[in-house]
């Protein structure tokens, strides 16, 4: 847990130094971040662990892969991949500032181009077949209905044939929603959720300042911030965009759990109990198979645009977990 906290803190320091510090401040913060990140990579938290294993398996020692984080936020995940050796990184986001993370790359890598872009959430500012890998981690639940097809289409357009798409998707079947930190309420119709959140906002959102609670409730219930779709919706979108995919959620649940990797928005004791059950021989396999669709889904996909021979998704998954 300390490594994870130190990592988050050091990345925040790095971004802040890029916003208002000198080049020397950035280099000092960067060296500190790299050291902490390298320590973390020996036993990464779940938020990085499955992606790290998947990317290393797909890369097969090719660290020149061109990688796009489709919804990179502050850039924390993609810079973690940089410290692993994957230095050909790009990213887009809608809400976060990208000037600071572009400045970091310019200082540490002397990059003349700006690989991070702030967009309107529709088309990606890249050429066709530009990337070897596209990752999207806990972003799809924030894509509005009028842009969801575009989001998938753009991933397919920008990936090379044989390229890999890695998606992590919270969805409607999850009994616990980490955005609202509530159990089962997201299964209810929006007008009922809206009433409950409004009526009992002090109970549900006591950590949020009173003067913005109403705005927060509206955002959660009006579809502008959170739309939890079913796993089958996402499978259909992958198929329609020529992706051969495999849901690796069950394998992730059995192999990749880390007791110390969770932030305070989840019940750690319950997570540890579930992890112990999943790791019981034979029984754990049955249990994880039955309940995999009640956890955040992780899919690994290979794009097949022109029927060229490439690594199959089944071979990739075998490399990840064997």
Largest sheet: 7 strands, mixed
Proportion of beta-strand residues: 5-15%
Rounded Rg: 20 Å
Structural class: alpha/beta
Shape: globular
The count of helical stretches stands at 14
CATH class categorisation: Alpha Beta
Q: State the order of secondary-structure elements, H for helix, E for strand.
A: HHHEHEHEEHEEEHHHHEHHHEH
Could you report the average pLDDT, rounded to the nearest whole number?
87
How many β-strand runs?
Answer: 9
Measured between the Cα atoms of the first and last residue, the distance is 27 Å
Number of domains: 1
CATH topology assignment: Rossmann fold
Unreliable runs:
none
- Report the CATH architecture: 3-Layer(aba) Sandwich
Approximate helicity band: 40-55%
CATH homologous superfamily designation = Vaccinia Virus protein VP39
Largest beta sheet: strand ordering:
3-2-1-4-5-9-8
Topology (SSEs and partners):
Blueprint: H1 2-20, H2 23-41, H3 46-59, E1 67-70, H4 76-83, E2 89-93, H5 99-109, E3 116-118, E4 131-137, H6 148-158, E5 159-169, E6 176-177, E7 182-183, H7 190-199, H8 201-204, H9 213-221, H10 231-240, E8 243-247, H11 249-255, H12 268-278, H13 283-291, E9 297-303, H14 313-321
Parallel strand pairs: 1-2, 1-4, 2-3, 4-5
Antiparallel strand pairs: 5-9, 6-7, 8-9
Helix pairs in contact: 1-2, 1-5, 3-14, 7-9, 11-13
